[in-house]
């Protein structure tokens, strides 16, 4: 009806157009997802052509999204609330509600957990002289990584980067 195709042509026969259209659609999905979630869109390779690399990238993007949504998204939400006017700054308030002093555990515990887990993996890969020595090292570093992970889980709400601004009440 728009005159894009000649009389008798079908859209299914236009392979070049289909490829360009699907790529534009997937690129648009990536742009929207980066603005909203901080990573590219998941499963865009379905639109293009599903590959093993696409599956790996979906897993990687999911891990990045999990981290960003839990540990670094509060500031972004606060920024959006300020921009949209959902929060109004009180000039009488002496301190900024955005600045919250972090305790030492927010840096130390994740580093200890990563180091202990890495040492556990290294001990598994580079076995000692005897199996009892290797087992002792693996149990030590495994329990250290599990212990710090349990402490982080127990204090989970302290580690999450929640928005700090409270939305203003709607005036009716």
Automatic annotation (TrEMBL):
Signal peptide: none
TM region positions: 106-128, 134-154
Single Gene Ontology MF annotation: phosphatidylinositol-4-phosphate phosphatase activity
A GO CC term assigned to this protein in UniProt: endoplasmic reticulum
Keywords: Membrane, Transmembrane, Transmembrane helix
An example Gene Ontology biological process: phosphatidylinositol dephosphorylation
Name of the molecule in the record: SAC1 phosphatase
Phylogenetic lineage: Eukaryota, Metazoa, Chordata, Craniata, Vertebrata
The gene coding this protein: Sacm1l_0
């Amino acid at each position: 009806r728009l005159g894009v195709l000649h009389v008798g042509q079908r859209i299914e026969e236009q392979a070049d157009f289909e490829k360009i259209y699907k790529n534009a659609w997937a690129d648009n999905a990536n742009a929207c997802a980066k603005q909203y979630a901080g990573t590219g869109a998941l499963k865009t390779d379905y639109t293009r052509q599903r590959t093993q690399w696409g599956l790996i990238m979906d897993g990687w993007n999911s891990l990045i999204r999990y981290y960003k949504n839990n540990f670094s998204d509060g500031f972004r939400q606060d920024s959006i609330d300020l921009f949209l006017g959902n929060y109004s700054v009180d000039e009488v308030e002496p301190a900024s509600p955005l600045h919250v002093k972090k305790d030492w555990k927010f840096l130390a515990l994740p580093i200890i957990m990563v180091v202990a887990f890495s040492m556990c993996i290294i001990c598994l890969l580079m076995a000692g002289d005897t199996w009892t020595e290797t087992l002792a090292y693996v149990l030590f570093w495994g329990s250290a990584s599990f212990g710090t992970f349990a402490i982080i889980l127990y204090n989970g709400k302290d580690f999450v980067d929640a928005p700090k601004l409270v939305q203003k009440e709607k005036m009716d």
